[in-house]
């Protein structure tokens, strides 16, 4: 009998010498834009429980320069979300490619002679891509944008001029010096108007070699220190003196997500209170983030089993 079992085990191994499975972090899709008069590629990653939780809806994180940062952001979000540090989130990466300079800058400049298409690109996002995502996926009305370098410039342009587009802005090493600090004028105008609702902004800078980049960043930080509270902006910033313009995008993403969701993790004193502690914590989250957040069944099960 043992010989027969061994034979079938050996036969199975011979027929399937290496059992392998692809690790898929997202899908690539294309949308035809009438506004831009071109097709645009985007990537999308859904949470691990997306197909299991039929009624559940998810916040969305939009990533500029998707071909560069989508996989980084999607994997980081999954890691944090699966460990209770942030909500399960849909991640959308927008491929920029050769249109990056055109799309991310509000005007032409010394370093962006082909620039000036930011308003049109934002119209594509708000009128075409975002509605497509919200029609096709189970989304919450809670959106975050992640941008770096001139992608960070675009994110701040959006905040200052069309703040209702996104709720949260994670911005690494932004090129705020563009076109003789044009965006600082936009910032002054934005802060002179009434609040458009609660916002979150995370800004970071590395050990940048361009003095004008450091100066424009410092001026923006000083403005936020003086004006952000009255504008209902929750914000923070980091300067990474030991990081480069490229490496800061990893640590800046990490700190930006943790700062945005600094209250998400259920503290142990609430876990010790069981279901009532969970209810109180998620009641706070609903009020703080201003959208409907249900207690995950998996977390209820873990608390019930006293597994932290």
From the structure above, extract its key features.
disordered N terminus; 8 strands; 308 residues; 8-stranded mixed β-sheet; alpha/beta; 45% helix
Structural features, described:
By secondary structure, this protein is of the alpha/beta class. It contains 11 helices and 8 strands. An 8-stranded mixed β-sheet has the order 1-2-4-3-5-6-7-8, with helices on both faces.
Strands of the widest sheet, in order across it, are 1-2-4-3-5-6-7-8
Our measurement of the CA-to-CA distance between the termini, rounded to an integer number of angstroms, reads: 45 Å
* Amount of helix: 40-55%
- Provide mean pLDDT, rounded: 90
Present the secondary structure layout.
Layout lengths: L1 H14 L11 E7 L4 E8 L12 E6 L2 H17 L7 E5 L5 H5 L13 H19 L2 E10 L1 H12 L6 E5 L5 H14 L7 E7 L5 H17 L5 E7 L8 H13 L7 H4 L3 H15 L7 H8 L4
Helix pairs in contact: 2-8, 5-6, 6-7
């Amino acid at each position: 009998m043992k010989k027969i079992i061994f034979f079938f085990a050996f036969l199975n191994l011979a027929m399937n010498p290496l059992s392998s499975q692809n690790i898929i972090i997202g899908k690539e899709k294309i949308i035809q834009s009438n506004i831009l008069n071109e097709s645009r590629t985007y990537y999308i990653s859904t949470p691990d429980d997306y197909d299991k939780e039929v009624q559940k809806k998810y916040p969305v994180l939009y990533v500029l320069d998707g071909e560069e940062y989508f996989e980084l952001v999607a994997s980081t979000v999954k890691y944090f979300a699966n460990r209770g540090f942030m909500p399960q989130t849909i991640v959308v990466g927008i491929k920029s490619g050769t249109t990056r300079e055109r799309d991310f800058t509000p005007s032409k400049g010394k370093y962006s002679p082909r620039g000036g298409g930011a308003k049109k690109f934002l119209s594509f996002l708000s009128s075409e891509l975002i509605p497509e995502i919200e029609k096709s996926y189970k989304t919450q009305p809670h959106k975050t944008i992640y941008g770096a370098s001139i992608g960070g410039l675009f994110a701040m342009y959006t905040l200052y001029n069309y703040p209702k587009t996104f709720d949260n802005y994670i911005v690494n090493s932004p090129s705020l010096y563009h076109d003789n600090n044009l965006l600082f004028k936009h910032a002054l105008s934005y802060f002179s108007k009434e609040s458009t609702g609660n916002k979150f902004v995370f800004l970071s800078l590395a050990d940048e070699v361009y003095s004008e980049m450091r100066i424009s960043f410092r001026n923006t930080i000083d403005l936020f220190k003086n004006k952000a509270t009255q504008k209902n902006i929750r914000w923070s910033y980091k300067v990474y003196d030991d990081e480069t313009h490229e490496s800061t995008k990893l640590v800046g993403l990490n700190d930006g997500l943790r700062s945005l969701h600094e209250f998400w993790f259920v503290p142990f004193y609430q876990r010790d209170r069981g279901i009532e502690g969970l209810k109180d914590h998620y009641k706070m989250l609903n009020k703080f983030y201003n959208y409907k957040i249900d207690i995950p069944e998996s977390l209820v099960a873990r608390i019930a089993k006293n597994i932290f």
